[in-house]
Design goal:
Number of domains: 1
Number of strands: 9
Distance between the termini: 37 Å
Shape: flat
Strand content: 35-45%
CATH architecture: Sandwich
CATH topology: Immunoglobulin-like
Order of helices and strands: HEEEEEEEEE
Amino acid sequence: MKVPITMLVLLMAAASAFAQHYEISSMQTGQQYACINNAWIRGAPCVEVSLRVTEDIGANQPMIKAYFFGKDREPVLECTRPTSVSFGDGQSKSVPDVFKPGKKNTVYFGIPANIQRGKAKWKYCVVVFGDKDSVTAAVYPKDDIQQFKFKEKDQLGKKPASK
């Protein structure tokens, strides 16, 4: 099917006008040297999240939260910020100081022992990334985001505020 160039340009412009400032590119589980419940743990289980911004957000720190859910999709834990991790250089970090447009940033959410087994065992993790005007969210393992209840859900897909 041939699409006229002008139509293609208009479609691309419309798509970029509604693009999110915030993106979650991947989520996976792993292990890190992490501070969970005020204790440093080697090989702590974590959800590793790759994030990026598509526009300059200046020195503003975006919201990065995680909600853990059990197999019945009921909440078992809310993390209001990523976990501090260390890579052996003597310094710990939970969030990048600055988010530069297009640059991938990795954050971690440590999984405390109390949600690793038993009735409160986690099965899903929803990560929310954004600001007061616009957020994006993703589920690990992949699932329908609409099946989960979290505070920022009504902000999903909203057009970011103009700068």
